[in-house]
Amino acid sequence: MSKSTFPDRDQLDMNPPAQLAAIQAATETLGFDMPSIPQTGALLRALAASKPAARVLELGTGTGIATCWLLDGLDDRGRLVTVEIDPVVQQLAKIDLGYDARINFVEEDAVAFMQHAPKSAFDLIFADALPGKFSELDDALSLLAGDGIYVVDDLLPQDNWPQGHASKVPVFIENMMSRPELTVEHWEWASGILLARKSGA
Ligand SMILES: C[S@@+](CC[C@H](N)C(=O)[O-])C[C@H]1O[C@@H](n2cnc3c(N)ncnc32)[C@H](O)[C@@H]1O
Questions:
Q1: What backbone torsions phi and psi does residue 80 show, to the nearest 5 degrees?
Q2: For residue 184, what is the domain's CATH number?
Q3: How many independent structural domains does the chain possess?
């Protein structure tokens, strides 16, 4: 069977959100080198779209790439809180997405945010900063509602990983797999995805 009959699925048009091209261009100009890739974005959009009036949390806005995909999936009653410690990168997200009343930009250390945020308040958490993923994992999971979904990417080796980071990944995956309240899927797909559903509503 020829390759052209079944093209690489990763190369198919993913119908990206309208603001994505502008955010990507600004991201490149700034030199921000940790953006989510389109496959992650498309997955996040589907997850955000899967629940009416979804309450979504993103830890690590960056320049707003995943934020933009998440917003594209949310319905009118959905809400997205996105937390970022660096106001310079988050400002890029605000430029293109700040008009949207469904989003709340929080400029704060995610560690502090997770301590004061209401427990079980989110249906979907995209944990895309070190805290909430490789540290403060209990805090992040405490914010997830019953039947909620926690998702991370970048579990496959990345060029920009700092020294010593690689060894944290299997520890994180094993930790997630060991939790009886979670149903975990781990895919060596895209940048490396782990998705966990918390039991009980
Ligand atoms: C992988 S990038 C986020 C990429 C973004 N979500 C996207 O889709 O392109 C991680 C982000 O987490 C932010 N960050 C790092 N430590 C943080 C902390 N303690 N609290 C909040 N944000 C943090 C970084 O400034 C960076 O923008």
A1: -130, 125
A2: 3.40.50.150
A3: 1
Residue-range definition of the domain harbouring residue 83: 36-198
Q: Is residue 150 part of a domain?
A: yes
Ligand 1 atom index nearest CA of 131: 19
Give the integer Cα–Cα distance in Å for 68 and 187.
23
CA of 84 to the centre of ligand 1 (A): 6
- Give the pLDDT of residue 2: 40
CA of 161 to the centre of ligand 1 (A): 13
pLDDT in tens, 176-195: 999 999 999 999 999 999 99
Q: Which atom of ligand 1 sits closest to the CA of residue 62?
A: 27
pTM of the model: 0.95
Most informative mutation of 36, 80, 115, 128 for ligand 1 (most atoms within 8 A of CB)? 128
Helix (H) or strand (E) holding 71: helix 65-73
